[in-house]
């Protein structure tokens, strides 16, 4: 599943409780989520190789060294979600992480406003009720210089962005205008909060290179290892196919030995985690459906020894002679029976 690392500015606060609970209760039907929650000091000393999505939840501005690691994480395909709070310093965040952000955050202001609710037409929420209706926000961060390519996921009632989603390198960065706890907003109390958190975590996760639909036997495919992977092993229906380490990995791995039909499993290892299943890189090889069609078809015309096409013929035999023969036999049988009956009658007389 998607590995989410939560960095809480106040690990004992309600914000941590709301997010932890939302991720723990997220259903697996759209993909499993696993989370780990740490404080800023622990995060500063961590290797991000095993984190696919990092969420800075009202966390202090990261140091330059940590900011560089976050930039590398996103450029390699990882996800980053930044949510403000009382520890959030807009100017410092802009100075350290500005190149990653989809907009330039402004200092927080106190302003009563309805929302956030889904932006019209965004695909994060299906059509209909989102479960965020009735949300009220007391305090928020404004945005300037919004990237024209950024997606507006949520909006306030005054049409200002409440959640932006942008790209940087191969990864994605989300920037919230209000807290993910109840300090500034009633958002965590809305029934749509859990789906919002779960879907955003999945949307920020590294994109895989494997297709969702089965591929035909013999189709070449390129596997793109997640950030931080130091070993990758591919196993096909008949056993192990590839086992790559270190420099042999690169940004993608070409795999051409896909002749056998069946499931191809992928395991990866990072610096702090041994080989484990990476379900998002698994793929299925299956023969085209038309090759398994058992519907009877037309019998093809044959060819002679020289390869010339021959036409088929059907012998038609008339039934009339057989019918006449049958009638004649019946007449003879009837005459024989009448003669026998006549002899028996005379004998008895």
Brief sketch in words of this structure:
The protein is of the alpha+beta class and 349 residues long.
Helix fraction by DSSP (H/I, runs of at least 4): 10-25%
Question: What is the rounded distance between the termini?
Answer: 107 Å
Computed Rg: 36 Å
Shape: elongated
Strands ordered across the widest β-sheet: 2-1-3-4-12-11-10-7
CATH level-3 fold name of the largest domain: Rossmann fold
Q: List the uncertain runs.
A: none
The computed structural class is alpha+beta
Order of helices and strands: EHEHEHEHEEEEEEEEHEEEEEEEH
Number of helices: 6
Averaging pLDDT over every residue, what do you get?
A: 84
Biggest sheet details: 8 strands, mixed
CATH homologous superfamily grouping of the largest domain? Class I glutamine amidotransferase (GATase) domain
Q: Kindly provide the name of the CATH class of the largest domain.
A: Alpha Beta
Task: Walk me through this protein's architecture.
α1 (14-25) crosses α5. It is built from six helices and 19 strands. The chain has two domains: 2-204, Rossmann fold (3-Layer(aba) Sandwich); 221-289, Immunoglobulin-like (Sandwich), CATH 2.60.40. The protein is of the alpha+beta class and 349 residues long. 32% of the residues are buried. The longest helix is centred in the C-terminal third of the chain and has 29 residues, at 320-348.
């Amino acid at each position: 599943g998607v590995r989410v690392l939560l960095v809480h500015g106040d690990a004992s606060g309600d914000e941590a409780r709301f997010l932890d609970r939302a991720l723990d209760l997220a259903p697996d039907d759209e993909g499993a989520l696993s989370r780990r929650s740490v404080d800023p000091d622990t995060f500063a000393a961590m290797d991000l190789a095993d984190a696919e999505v990092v969420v800075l939840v009202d966390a202090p501005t990261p140091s330059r060294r940590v900011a560089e690691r976050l930039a590398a994480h996103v450029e390699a395909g990882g996800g980053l979600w930044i949510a403000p709070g009382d520890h959030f310093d807009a100017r410092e965040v802009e100075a350290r992480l500005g190149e990653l952000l989809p907009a330039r955050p402004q200092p927080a202001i106190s302003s009563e406003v309805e929302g956030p609710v889904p932006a019209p037409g965004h695909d994060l929420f299906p059509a209909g009720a989102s479960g965020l209706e009735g949300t009220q926000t007391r305090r928020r961060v404004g945005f300037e210089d919004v990237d024209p390519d950024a997606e507006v996921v949520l909006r306030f009632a005054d049409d200002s962005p409440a959640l932006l989603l942008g790209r940087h390198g191969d990864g994605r960065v989300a920037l919230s205008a209000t807290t993910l706890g109840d300090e500034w907003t009633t958002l965590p109390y809305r029934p749509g909060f859990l789906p919002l958190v779960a879907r955003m975590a999945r949307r920020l996760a590294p994109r895989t290179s494997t297709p969702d639909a089965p591929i035909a036997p013999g189709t070449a495919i390129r596997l793109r290892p997640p950030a931080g992977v130091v070993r990758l092993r591919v196993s096909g229906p008949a056993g192990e196919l590839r086992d790559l380490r270190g420099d042999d990995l690169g940004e993608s791995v070409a795999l051409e030995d896909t002749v056998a039909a069946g499931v191809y499993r992928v395991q990866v290892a990072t610096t702090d985690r041994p080989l484990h299943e990476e379900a998002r890189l698994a793929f299925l090889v299956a023969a085209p459906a038309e090759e398994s069609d058992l519907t009877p078809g037309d019998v093809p015309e044959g060819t002679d020894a020289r390869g010339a096409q021959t036409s088929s013929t059907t012998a038609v035999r008339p039934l009339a002679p057989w019918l006449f023969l049958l009638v004649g036999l019946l007449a003879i049988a009837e005459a024989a029976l009448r003669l026998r009956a006549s002899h028996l009658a005379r004998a008895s007389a």
